């Protein structure tokens, strides 16, 4: 099945980031294109200790249950390295990748952020957790142009963190797909969040340089494009899907220094 206006795209697998869901992270995108291309929601595990391969195999099982064949995989934040691993482990199921605010492994700054995130979650201090996530997630431009009262209201209305948050954070703390990046052989778009305080734009661009023939788009947002610029993010993804080539790249592979 080919989505109307989307080249060779047969379906889209959505893999969200830690502390969220496919709806909270991809809702704007699915509302935009969900009537034209089948979307499969890849929900992160709620149990700690699962191996990365177990997790991505679960996404493939979800696609099977939905009757999907080959898929373009759209991964946000921790969903991005999971999308990379899925494409490397199941290349026959993946015909494209969209990686937004991606990282290949957590660095020291991210580990500290994850530790504080988990501590605030487990203490039940969810208002402080929302402020922490705003501080580490929102870009400077968005924060400076947002009225303080409106920002406080947004934080008050932020959805409660899901019960699976500890499992998400535990997985994020140990994932490492650096060796998989150079093995990818499908069209790929890396969406760099250029004001990201959690995953530095330099690390995101280095990841893009390590993916063979990847194209890039940049958003002037922090780590939360679904809050800061949902339409711009959807534009970038839709543009990539519309331009999907007939087949996979044939250019030479390259590797970057992804740390």
Could you list some keywords that capture this structure?
single chain, 259 residues, alpha/beta, Rossmann fold, 12 helices
Q: Would you mind describing this structure in some detail?
A:
- The chain is built from twelve helices and six strands.
- With 259 residues, the protein is α/β, with parallel strands linked by helices.
- A six-stranded parallel beta sheet has the order 2-1-3-4-5-6, sandwiched between helices.
- Helix 10 links the parallel strand 5 and strand 6 (215-219).
- The longest helix is centred in the middle third of the chain and has 16 residues, at 108-123.
- Residues 1-5 and 247-256 have low confidence and may be disordered.
User: What structural class do helix, strand and pairing data support?
Assistant: alpha/beta
Q: Which value, in Å, is the CA radius of gyration?
A: 17 Å
- Estimate the helix proportion, in percent: 40-55%
Helix-strand string: EHEHEHEHHHHHHEHEHH
N-C termini distance: 39 Å
In total, the number of strands is: 6
Principal-axes geometry comes out as globular
Low-confidence stretches: 1-5, 247-256
Spatial order of the strands in the main sheet? 2-1-3-4-5-6
CATH C-level class is Alpha Beta
Instruction: Report the total helices.
Output: 12
Counting copies of identical and different chains, the oligomeric state is single chain
Q: Describe the main β-sheet briefly.
A: 6 strands, parallel
Strand content: 5-15%
The CATH topology label is Rossmann fold
Average pLDDT confidence is 89
- Count of the domains: 1
CATH superfamily: Alpha/Beta hydrolase fold, catalytic domain
CATH architecture: 3-Layer(aba) Sandwich
């Amino acid at each position: 099945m080919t989505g109307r206006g989307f080249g060779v795209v047969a379906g889209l697998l959505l893999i969200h980031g830690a502390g969220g869901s496919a709806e909270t992270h991809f809702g704007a995108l699915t509302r935009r294109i969900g009537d034209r291309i089948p979307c499969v929601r890849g929900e992160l595990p709620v149990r700690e200790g699962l191996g990365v391969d177990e997790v991505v195999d679960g996404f493939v099982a979800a696609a099977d249950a939905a009757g999907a064949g080959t898929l373009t995989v759209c991964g946000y934040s921790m969903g991005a390295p999971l999308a990379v691993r899925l494409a490397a482990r199941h290349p026959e199921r993946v015909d494209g990748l969209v990686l937004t605010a991606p990282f290949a492994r957590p660095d020291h700054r991210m580990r500290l952020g994850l530790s504080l995130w988990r501590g605030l979650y487990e203490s039940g201090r969810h208002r402080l957790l929302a402020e922490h996530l705003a501080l580490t997630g929102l870009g400077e431009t968005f924060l400076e142009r947002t009225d303080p009262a409106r920002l406080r209201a947004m934080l008050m209305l932020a959805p409660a963190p899901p019960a699976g948050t500890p499992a998400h954070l535990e997985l994020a703390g140990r994932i490492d797909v650096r060796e998989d990046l150079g093995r990818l052989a499908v069209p790929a778009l890396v969406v760099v969040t250029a004001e990201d305080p959690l995953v530095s734009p330099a690390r995101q661009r280095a990841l893009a340089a390590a993916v063979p023939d990847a194209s890039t788009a940049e958003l002037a947002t922090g780590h939360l494009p679904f809050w800061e610029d949902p339409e711009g993010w959807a534009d970038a993804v839709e543009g990539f899907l519309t331009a999907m080539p007939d087949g996979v790249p044939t250019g030479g592979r390259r590797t970057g220094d992804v740390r």
